[in-house]
Amino acid sequence: METSEDDINAEEYPTEIHDYLTTFEKSLSSVDEMLKTMMSVPRSELLYKLEPLEQAKLDLVSAYTLNSMFWVYLATQGINPKEHPVKQELERIRTYMNKVKEIADKKKASKLDKGAASRFVRNALWEPSPENERTSKTPAKGKKRKMD
Asked: Which residue intervals make up region (Disordered) (predicted)?
């Protein structure tokens, strides 16, 4: 009697986690394809084409991905990654990723053109016309009442 691969797999693990394993397998395939693409270009050539900020982002994402994969490996070996130095390494990389993000956000922020801003404010403020100016500068002349 021949058994199919699905029958063997169904016997090896609980059926409740089948969807999770299928998703995990697809994710691994996706990571594998990305790594193949990334490794097909020499690192020096890849970095040469990028600006320094983009180079830092690439290096940080690469380091974070590698350490995350090591985290998963530890978990598959029954080792608690939360008690392993890889946790501190991931936190350190995350800190640098936040710093690079701050730099990128500052770079994207529009620069204030002081001349344009002062013209905008000056034109937005109301200025009295010469006609209004004359009447507003002279005090109101009321008629004096005679006391009888």
From this structure: 123-148
Q: In sequence order, what DSSP letters do the residues of 71-119 get, joined into one string?
A: HHHHHHTT--GGGSTHHHHHHHHHHHHHHHHHHHHHHHSPPP-HHHHHH
Tokens of 64: 């974070």
Q: Structure pTM?
A: 0.59
Q: Are 47 and 55 in contact (CB under 8 A)?
A: yes
Residue predicted with more confidence, 110 or 77: 77
Tally of CB atoms within 10 A around 93:
20
What percent of the chain clears pLDDT 90, i.e. is strictly above it? 38
pLDDT of residue 12: 77
Asked whether the CA dihedral 72, 77, 82, 84 is positive or negative, the reply is: negative
